[in-house]
Amino acid sequence: MPDRELEPVIRVAILGSTGSIGRSALEVVSRHPGRFEIVALAANRRVERLAEQVERFRPDTAVVCDASVPLPESTGRTEWSSGRGALLDVVSRSDVDVVLNALVGAAGLEPTVATLEAGHRLALANKESLVAGGPIVLASARRGGGEIVPIDSEHSAILQCLEGHGADAVHRLVLTASGGPFRGRSAPELDQVVASEALRHPTWDMGAKITIDSATLANKALEVIEAHFLYGLGYDAIEAVVHPQSIIHSFVEFVDGSVLAQLGFPTMELPILYALNYPVRVSDESLRTYDPVRASPLTFEDIDHEAFPMFALGVEAGRRSGCAPAVYNAANEVAVQAFLEGRIRFPEIPEVVGTAMDRIGVSELTEMDDVTAADAAARVVAAEAAAALGDANIGTTS
Questions:
Q1: String of b and e for 109-122 (b: at least 16 CB within 10 Å)?
Q2: C-beta atoms surrounding 317 within 10 Å
């Protein structure tokens, strides 16, 4: 066994440190003193929470992504800065070993690309990076020599099952979905559900946007698109099933018929620990031991496509390729926000997204500007569609 004192400290920058993934990552780091050093923390605009993290972990740099937010004075060893440029400076630093990107939404794409072009390991929790700009992300990794280690529990599971195997050995991937808070409800039963219900996830503690994505199963569609880029498989070889217990995080079926799965209790701390130390496994006694008897039974169901059309819409966007996934992603962000604000109903989320996909169509994706243009166009169309639906809803209730 290697001498722990001789192993280099892993220097980590966390983007989105005040969100659920970022906070979990800091808890993992705190349990392994001497193994990790936090060199930079970044958050969108939660300055007070970020300041508390800075006080505890003493990074060199703290970045507030939203340049309009006032910064506290730099004190001690930590220098505060703000804006897009400051964020990109952080991920390009030569003294960073791992960048954990837990930013929410398409805003995570640019730092993902910059991290990989700088040759760093990217511990990726921002699934929108690969969804909106998959070809650009892969090209940046080839140019800069960076590597992607996914943090999504499903993709971490697949990575672990694929250890020592290439895409040519794989017959299919099967992602698992909890089914969210509305599992088992029919399409008519979802007509009047409200945001507070959708935010009550049965097994995972996540931010509002990703929790709504789990409720619509858009989250699973995004993961299918991610898997296509991460593992080089066609969409016909990537499936999803509902697994309410969230114990099996994904299956890999190989060409000889063998099936491997990764199991564990639902906690993001396990895939975070694996990504930060990849490919080395590190003991962590705080993580719950799997008990097959108490965890039984493990059950599986087909996805109800009538009740949850966002899944099929997302996979279709992936199949269309080009900028279609970016359009799906951006329109979904607009629709989710409209639902959270009570301006549209739950079943109208796929209506908004479908409208954007139909009106914008498919365009080529070769550079970042293509993603930016598709994202902006989708947001405009989605906002108009959401506004029209909101007006119609007011008319029917007045």
A1: bbbbbbbbbbebbb
A2: 27
**H-helix or E-strand spanning residue 26:** helix 20-30
0.90 exceeded by pTM = yes
Tell me how many domains the chain contains. 3
What sign for the dihedral angle of Cα 185, 187, 192, 196? Answer: positive
pLDDT in tens, 49-101: 999 999 999 999 999 999 999 998 776 789 999 999 999 999 999 999 999 99
Contact present, 109 and 371 (Cβ < 8 Å) = yes
CATH code, domain with 340 = 1.10.1740.10
What are the counts of helices (DSSP H) followed by strands (DSSP E) for the chain? 15, 11
In whole angstroms, give the CA distance from residue 169 to residue 260.
12
CA torsion through residues 131, 365, 122, 208, sign: negative
Q: Judge whether 390 and 345 are in contact, CB under 8 Å.
A: no
- Distance between CA 280 and CA 73 in Å, rounded? 39
Q: Are residues 172 and 134 in the same domain?
A: no
| 349 alpha-carbon distance from chain centroid | 19
Query: Per the domain annotation, does 274 fall within a domain?
Result: no
Other Cβ atoms closer than 10 A to 232: 13
